[in-house]
Structures are given as C-alpha cells and as structure tokens.
From TrEMBL:
<keyword id="KW-0594">Phospholipid biosynthesis</keyword>
<keyword id="KW-0808">Transferase</keyword>
<keyword id="KW-0472">Membrane</keyword>
<feature type="binding site">
    <location>
        <begin position="96"/>
        <end position="97"/>
    </location>
    <ligand>
        <name>ATP</name>
    </ligand>
</feature>
<feature type="binding site">
    <location>
        <begin position="87"/>
        <end position="89"/>
    </location>
    <ligand>
        <name>ATP</name>
    </ligand>
</feature>
<feature type="transmembrane region" description="Helical">
    <location>
        <begin position="98"/>
        <end position="119"/>
    </location>
</feature>
<keyword id="KW-0460">Magnesium</keyword>
<feature type="binding site">
    <location>
        <position position="78"/>
    </location>
    <ligand>
        <name>a divalent metal cation</name>
    </ligand>
</feature>
<dbReference type="InterPro" id="IPR036945">
    <property type="entry name" value="DAGK_sf"/>
</dbReference>
<dbReference type="GO" id="GO:0005886">
    <property type="term" value="C:plasma membrane"/>
</dbReference>
<keyword id="KW-0418">Kinase</keyword>
<keyword id="KW-0997">Cell inner membrane</keyword>
<dbReference type="Pfam" id="PF01219">
    <property type="entry name" value="DAGK_prokar"/>
</dbReference>
<feature type="binding site">
    <location>
        <position position="71"/>
    </location>
    <ligand>
        <name>substrate</name>
    </ligand>
</feature>
<feature type="binding site">
    <location>
        <position position="57"/>
    </location>
    <ligand>
        <name>substrate</name>
    </ligand>
</feature>
<keyword id="KW-0443">Lipid metabolism</keyword>
<dbReference type="GO" id="GO:0046872">
    <property type="term" value="F:metal ion binding"/>
</dbReference>
Amino acid sequence: MKPANNHGIKRVIRATGFSMQGLKLAWKHEAAFRQELILAAIMLPVALLVDVTTVERILLILGLFVVLIVELLNSAIEAVVDRISDEIHPLSGQAKDIASAAVFMSLFFCGLTWLLILVPKFI
C-alpha cells in the first residue's frame, strides 16, 4: 500500500532510501554484483587517471556503470522468478537466461570499450 504523503521531497527521500536498501541487499546476497562492484572500484581510478579524451573517459566509466545496472536488473528478475515458484518451468528458465545474456552483453560492451580505447594508447 502506498503512503498517502508520497509526493514531493518526501517521495525523493523515500525512493533514495529504497535504492540504498536495494544496493545493500545486492551486495549482501549477489556474489556477481560484489565481484563486478569491486572490479569497477579498481577500474574507475584507472579511467580517471589514464590519458584519454573526455569522451573516451566517459565511455570507460559508462561501461562500468552499465555492467552494474544490468547486474542489478538481472538479480531483480531472478528474485521475482524465484519468488513466484520453486517449480522448474521453461518460462522461468527463459527469463533467467535472457537476463543473464543481458549481463553478458554489458560485460562484452564494457570490455570491448576498454580494449578499443586503451590498447591503442599503449601500443
């Protein structure tokens, strides 16, 4: 049930709280999110320190955030599917596999972006 005063700054504050709760839950329960966040924490300073153009720097950082965002969505999809039923169902598997494919694509995009930007700088 939605609270009656769910508008204005109170809505923003509540939404921020829910978002922080979601990040904490992802950190606590999702090993892949923890691994990707740690990797992003290592790679972010590299993106900030390497000698690249502003657009290239934005692309390097964007790739990191895209991976984290897609992983959060994948985890949410998995949680909903698992909540609906413990029963093995083809559509449940399909939903999880497609969400996993989205994570794979985001990782591929991030890796390709980093390679295309950084390899020419060092070769």
